[in-house]
Amino acid sequence: MSGNSKKRQVVPFIYSAERPVFIEGATSRQADPLNSLLALIFRLTGFNARAYRDSTLKRRLELRLQATRCRKIKEYLAYIKNHPEEAFIFKENLLIHVTRFFRDRPVFTYFEQRLLPGWLNQLMASKRRRIRIWSVGCASGQEPFTLAMILHRPATERGLHPLILATDISPQVLDKAREALYSASELRYVPRHYRQIYFTEIKPKLFRLTPELRQLVNFRQHDLLQDKAPGKFDLIVCRNLLIFFRPEAQSLLLKKLIQSLNEGGLLLLGRSERINLDSSLELVSSRFCFYRKMTNSKRRKSFFG
Ligand SMILES: C[S@@+](CC[C@H](N)C(=O)[O-])C[C@H]1O[C@@H](n2cnc3c(N)ncnc32)[C@H](O)[C@@H]1O
Fold it and tell me: Exposed/middle/buried for 34, CB within 10 Å: 0-12, 13-18, 19+?
């Protein structure tokens, strides 16, 4: 059996433990129609909805029940068996794609003004030329393009080349991200000096990011729950994604992110996603949720000294 098929078989059952399901009409004692529904969704789409929080599942499921005029989960199960495309609609509806440029601006100001110069100098000193960055759950591209705007000049001036891999589970948002076309209202969060340098108005109130920035970002479909991490990175930005998962899934995903960081690499999480430090991470800023993966020698010191 290939590594890949093995992984696909094992992961979904991590979340299959019997647990109370907070959907009206279902109690932990009844046979659990929600579990059957999530298993069917997984079979049809490969999407592991069990890892998402009950509160999100419940809200989104209620909306789909209304839209398909099903009164109970059992009816909805039957509906999906007759209309398998509904499984994909359920999946897409569970994903929340809210994003914007410079989301939570003080975080990016801190990064740009306080962290970036020292971090780039450090990378230069290590004779590295490429900086590898992973924007996880990138939605329609505003987050990786924000990073590209901030990094482009200071990195180029130092002879460094940033490569940003931006991933999301949803092919729909990735299509929008690849176009790099944004409305005037989406651009209102971009600082004016960046707007002037990096966007061209191609139609009234429709702007495209310049090719020099677009070429820094590579978009790829990737399911953080099920797919292998796409390599090792100097900076991983994973904001407003972990919050949607159950705590057990959050810890597994966090481990995956830490394993994908180079030693000394930075991890940026969303401000509502603070974590307990493990032995491999040190805090860079608790206010802005930046962490650093410790080098082996530093880790040895903190274990023994
Ligand atoms: C709320 S958006 C956050 C966007 C951006 N990081 C930000 O903070 O503005 C969360 C994104 O995570 C994606 N997502 C949800 N589950 C995922 C998974 N299992 N693997 C990869 N991406 C996922 C969603 O499709 C959505 O686009």
Answer: buried
